[in-house]
């Protein structure tokens, strides 16, 4: 234990005396926010939308046909037909659906009687871009069926689409906060942990601890532990600044904050462990520089942090399934915007935990104890 | 008992054998030196003995432990001052030593006492709280030496410990090593390409060239094995061909070499024949500015066994093997 703590202490002292790295770790995520926030546009495809048709009459069938046409044409939706509206809303809360369309039992009857008929559209508005796309596409489908769309409070039409945001309104800046946090974690894990090993190797001072009884496990886990401390502190500062700037309130209180902290810690641990696989044998910081851009592109962009995963082509969606940052973003968004509990993010946490264990084991095995 | 036992040790990088079938023993308490030019295989050999490199073949025991099978025990028994300065520049001297002591799980109180005492011995107590980045080269080297003594190793390895130091700092390090050897009852294994370092410090010296040991004994015995000859060095900028020819006619003259305004004359029994040489030069109407008789040194031993000067070798040889400042990727392929 004393040896492990020694590795941690050494690493922390060295970090504290490098203000440039500290400064860049804080500033770069915000710069990235500005640049990336304006860089992503694209048509969304395959947004999972639940359809609960409690009516089954001609009017509802006609409307569903139009939705199927959109599914088969532009492909904006992937329609999932369900029987239980409660289950559909629950799936939105758990992240399985982006929206749920509920067609009530009296929809056709009311339509034919030219009485007031409505359908309900429940939206996951924590993903502002997807929610907006679904709302607009539904509105177009309504218009095509000859039924006018009116907002909820306008009572002029007989039939209308009533859309319901499940959560408090999230503006664009606020929607980027999870991305900023994940970026802070990513940069933190790049400039601590395995990176210090690369620098020691480059400066030729790695011999000083390779010649001691420190084991591979001592060195790798010690550097990861110090990296977790540094990165978590930086990320928390970035997070607190972000919510102050964008005006997000943590309405779930301490429980919500602790869960967010847990997501940050687990993500940091996973990414630091992963860095040992990539950088464990690298001997020049220039290689780290090159890898930074590459790793950023392949992990951050397809994470759903800035633009929904549903806008990606099929191959990139498949990659997102094994991208730890995608799980981190999903978990962070769920807790931050939906005040979700452990139950809603346990899948993300399970993936990140398994990823961390595998990456750390591989990192230790890949680390070479000799020159 | 032997502190170090090496049998037929080989290390190859691709097709190049950096160490090629080396065998030797170092006795406990001995100050043993490895002498050779850069690229001779000294650092590679030390790194194998320190567990940093795995031998291609052969066997080495350090403090009775196999360097491959019992690497951890070897690391606990040794202290190593590598060729490069390895202390963290971002930390103070005290922090460097304290953390090093923690790597060996030395209890806090013992660590504090030991670090304080060692820093005191090398005169760094006043600067113990300063960042190592602010130290001079000599101070850093002193720190390097004492840092690896915190855990009381039985065997101390030093790879070119005075390279790049000014003469005064070099002498300080030598004095420290002598003192620590006695006080800590250390076995010291030193690699160097400085003749005077090997001669002044070592009980025994092994001369290594192209990965092989070509001679090994005490400096005195190695010099004693040379044929009886001295070198008379005359400062004579305007020496002519006639003078050189006339000197070569003496029976006792074995060779004459003209270089940079000096004549180096290899003779038997230099002290007796020098007046005869000076008389001959006077006959040509020339005056000698200075005369010196060079005694046999380890440099002569190296020349005797290899046919080359170690300094000539230094100048022309590109370092092929691992050494400080040479990217490892280049040399390990």
Please tell me about this protein's structure.
The complex is a heterodimer of chains A (371) and B (333). Chain A is of the alpha/beta class and 371 residues long. Chain A has 2 domains: 2-39 and 172-366, no CATH class; 47-165, abc type-2 transporter like fold, CATH 3.40.1710.10. Chain A has 16 helices and 5 strands. Chain A has a 5-stranded mixed β-sheet with strand order 2-1-3-4-5, with helices on both faces. In chain A, α9 packs parallel to α12 (253-279). The radius of gyration of chain A is 24 Å and the shape is elongated. Mean pLDDT of chain A is 83; it is low at 148-157. In chain B, the strands form 3 sheets. In chain B, strands 6-7-8-3-9-10 form a 6-stranded mixed β-sheet, sandwiched between helices. A 4-stranded antiparallel β-sheet of chain B has the order 2-1-4-5, with helices on one face. Mean pLDDT of chain B is 86; it is low at 315-333. The radius of gyration of chain B is 23 Å and the shape is elongated. The A-B interface holds A 2-3, 5-6, 9-10, 13-14, 17-18, 204-205, 207-215, 283, 369-371 and B 47, 50-54, 71-72, 75-76, 78, 80, 82, 84-88, 90-91, 95, 99-100, 102-105, 131, 147-148, 322, 324-325, 327-329, 332.
Supply the CATH superfamily name of the largest domain in chain B: P-loop containing nucleotide triphosphate hydrolases
Going by CATH, the architecture of the largest domain in chain B would be 3-Layer(aba) Sandwich
The termini of chain A sit apart by: 25 Å
Question: What can be said about the biggest beta sheet of chain B?
Answer: 6 strands, mixed
Range of strand content of chain B: 25-35%
Please indicate the count of domains of chain A: 2
Number of helices of chain B: 13
What is the CATH topology classification name of the largest domain in chain B?
Rossmann fold
Strand order of the largest sheet of chain A: 2-1-3-4-5
Helix % of chain B is 25-40%
Our Rg estimate of chain B from Cα atoms comes to: 23 Å
Question: What average pLDDT do the residues of chain B reach?
Answer: 86
Which stretches of chain B are poorly predicted, pLDDT < 50 over at least 5 residues? 315-333
The coarse silhouette of chain B is elongated
Largest sheet of chain A: 5 strands, mixed
Number of H- or I-type helical stretches of chain A: 16
Largest interface, C-beta closer than 8 angstroms, per-chain residues: A-B, 25 and 37 residues
């Amino acid at each position: 234990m004393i040896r492990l703590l020694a590795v941690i202490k050494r690493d922390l002292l060295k970090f504290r005396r490098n203000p440039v790295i500290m400064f860049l770790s804080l500033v770069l995520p915000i710069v990235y926010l500005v640049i990336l926030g304006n860089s992503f546009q694209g048509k969304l495809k395959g947004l999972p939308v639940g359809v609960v048709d409690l009516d089954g009459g001609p009017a509802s069938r006609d409307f569903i046909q139009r939705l199927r046409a959109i599914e088969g044409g532009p492909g904006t939706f992937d329609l999932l037909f369900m029987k239980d509206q409660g289950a559909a809303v629950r799936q939105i809360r758990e992240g399985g659906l982006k929206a749920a369309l509920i067609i009530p039992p009296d929809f056709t009857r009311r339509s034919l009687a030219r009485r007031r008929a409505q359908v309900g559209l429940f939206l996951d508005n924590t993903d502002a871009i997807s929610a907006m796309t679904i709302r607009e596409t539904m509105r177009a489908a309504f218009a095509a069926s000859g039924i006018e769309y009116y907002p909820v409070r306008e009572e002029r039409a007989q039939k209308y689409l009533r859309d319901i945001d499940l959560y408090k309104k999230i503006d664009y800046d606020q929607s980027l906060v999870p991305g900023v946090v994940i970026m802070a974690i990513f940069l933190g894990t790049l400039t601590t942990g395995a990176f210090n090993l690369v620098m020691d190797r480059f400066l030729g001072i790695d011999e000083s601890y390779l010649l001691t009884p420190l084991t591979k496990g001592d060195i790798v886990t010690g550097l990861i532990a110090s990296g977790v401390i540094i990165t978590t502190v930086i990320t928390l500062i970035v997070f607190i600044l972000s919510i102050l700037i964008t005006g997000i309130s943590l309405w779930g209180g301490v429980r919500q904050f602790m869960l967010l902290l847990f997501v940050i810690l687990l993500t940091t641990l996973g990414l630091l462990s992963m860095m040992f696989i990539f950088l464990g044998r690298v001997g020049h910081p220039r290689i780290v520089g090159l890898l930074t851009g590459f790793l950023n592109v392949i992990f951050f962009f397809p994470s759903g942090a800035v633009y929904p995963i549903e806008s990606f082509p099929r191959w990139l969606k498949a990659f997102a399934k094994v991208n730890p940052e995608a799980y981190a973003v999903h978990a962070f968004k769920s807790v931050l915007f939906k005040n979700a509990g452990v139950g809603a993010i346990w899948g993300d946490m399970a993936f990140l935990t398994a990823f961390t264990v595998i990456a750390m084991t591989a990192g230790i095995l890949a680390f070479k104890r000799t020159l | 008992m032997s502190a170090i036992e090496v049998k037929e040790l080989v290390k190859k990088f691709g097709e190049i054998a950096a160490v090629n079938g080396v065998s030797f023993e170092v006795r406990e308490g001995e100050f043993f030196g490895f002498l050779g030019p850069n690229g001779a295989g000294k650092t590679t050999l030390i790194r194998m003995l320190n567990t940093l490199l795995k031998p291609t073949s052969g066997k080495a025991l350090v403090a009775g432990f196999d360097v491959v099978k019992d690497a951890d025990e070897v690391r606990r028994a040794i202290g190593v001052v590598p060729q490069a300065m390895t202390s963290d520049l971002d930390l103070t001297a005290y922090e460097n030593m304290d953390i090093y002591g923690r790597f060996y799980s030395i209890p806090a109180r013992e660590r504090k006492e030991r670090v304080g005492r060692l820093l005191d011995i090398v005169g760094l107590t006043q600067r113990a709280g300063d960042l190592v980045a602010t130290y001079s080269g000599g101070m850093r080297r002193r720190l390097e030496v004492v840092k690896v003594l915190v855990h009381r190793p039985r065997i101390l390895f030093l790879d070119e410990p005075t390279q790049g130091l000014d003469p005064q700092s070099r002498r300080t390090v030598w004095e420290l090593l002598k003192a620590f050897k006695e006080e800590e009852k250390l076995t010291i294994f030193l690699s160097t390409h400085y003749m005077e370092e090997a001669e002044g410090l070592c009980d025994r010296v092994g001369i290594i060239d192209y990965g092989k040991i070509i001679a090994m004994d005490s400096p005195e015995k190695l010099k004693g094995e040379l044929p009886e000859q001295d070198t008379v060095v005359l400062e004579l900028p305007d020496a002519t061909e006639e003078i050189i020819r006339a000197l070569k006619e003496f029976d006792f003259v074995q060779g004459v070499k003209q270089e940079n305004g000096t004549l180096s004359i290899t003779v038997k029994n230099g002290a007796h024949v020098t007046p005869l040489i000076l008389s001959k030069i006077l006959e040509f109407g020339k005056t000698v500015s200075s005369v010196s008789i060079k005694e046999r040194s380890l440099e002569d031993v190296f020349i005797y066994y290899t046919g080359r000067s170690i300094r000539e070798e230094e100048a022309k040889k590109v370092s092929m093997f691992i050494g400080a400042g040479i990217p490892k990727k280049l040399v390990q392929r």
